[in-house]
Write a structure and sequence with these properties.
With about 240 residues, the protein is α/β, with parallel strands linked by helices. It has 9 helices and 10 strands. It binds adenosine-5'-diphosphate and magnesium ion (MG).
Length: about 240
């Protein structure tokens, strides 16, 4: 297997405030790589560093064999990084189709015909095809999460970055998201999935990393990571559903 993503000793922060500390990890092609860690441990910041939305003080980020450490954000999107945001912000007055089309036009190809086909493909993949003419403001939370994923897929990513897409959902709805992620993996996407709810990650990821204070605490086979002393200590007494 070859690597789709590699962080090598990345130190990064907002302004002069350092958040990521010597962060190193790598993701294999075709994997679902999970990231857990307490609130404020730097998970979203890791995505911001990957997307070029903050300063990298030192270290390297290699994406699909290319050093992207100093690459501008729009170029990173074009070469195959697509993300969801923790708080979904669709264009409320636009239909689902239009929402995904915007992503396809801006992120992926600027050929109109291709963007149209790609938008429909992403709506089918996420189970939203039959609702494509509905305005996004009318969606349930679960469908808003699906739309957030569809918009990320619209940019034709090689690596899909999911930031707490299961947060706020009922157990049954979380299962729907887990099913969708499995389908996306089967469709050939490599995925990095951040989630605060650790139980969700055991059934859904190939590898799991736990972060704290901007560092990698541990990484490995998901069940082993969750049962490790380091992770038990970090989450002890913390009810992640609160
Ligand atoms: N835009 C920002 N400017 C300054 N500090 C920030 C900013 N965003 C997040 N932080 C800080 O970075 C740390 C990590 O936050 P974040 O990456 O959002 O954590 P997580 O996603 O793991 O909950 C926190 O201490 C947070 O307060
Ligand atoms: Mg976060």
């Amino acid at each position: 297997m070859s690597k789709i993503l590699e962080f090598i000793d990345v130190n990064a922060g907002y302004g002069r405030i350092q958040i990521l500390n010597d962060l190193s990890f790598s993701v294999e092609k075709g994997q679902v790589f999970g990231v857990i860690g307490p609130n404020g441990s730097g998970k979203t910041t890791m995505f911001n560093a990957l997307l070029g939305q903050m300063r990298i003080f030192s270290g390297k980020i290699i994406f699909d064999g290319v050093d992207i450490t100093r690459m501008p954000p729009n170029v990173r999107c074009k070469i195959g990084l697509g993300r969801t945001f923790q708080v979904p912000m669709p264009f409320e007055n636009m239909s689902l189709y239009e929402n995904v089309l915007v992503a396809a036009v801006h992120g992926g190809s600027n050929r109109e015909r291709f963007a149209h086909d790609e938008a429909l493909r992403c709506l089918k993949l996420t189970g939203l095809y039959d609702k494509r003419e509905i305005k996004s403001g009318e969606l349930t939370l679960l469908d808003r999460k699906r739309l957030e994923i569809a918009r990320a897929l619209g940019t034709s990513p090689k690596l899909l970055l999911l930031d707490e897409v299961a947060a706020g959902l009922t157990d049954a709805e979380v299962k729907e998201i887990m099913k969708l992620v499995a389908e996306l993996k089967a469709a050939g996407y490599s995925i990095v999935w951040i989630e605060h709810i650790i139980e969700t990650m055991v059934g859904s990821t190939d590898r799991l990393m736990c972060m704290a204070e901007g560092r990698r605490v541990t990484e490995g086979e998901p069940r082993e990571v969750i049962e490790s002393d380091e992770v038990q200590r970090l989450y002890l007494g913390v009810d992640e559903n609160e």
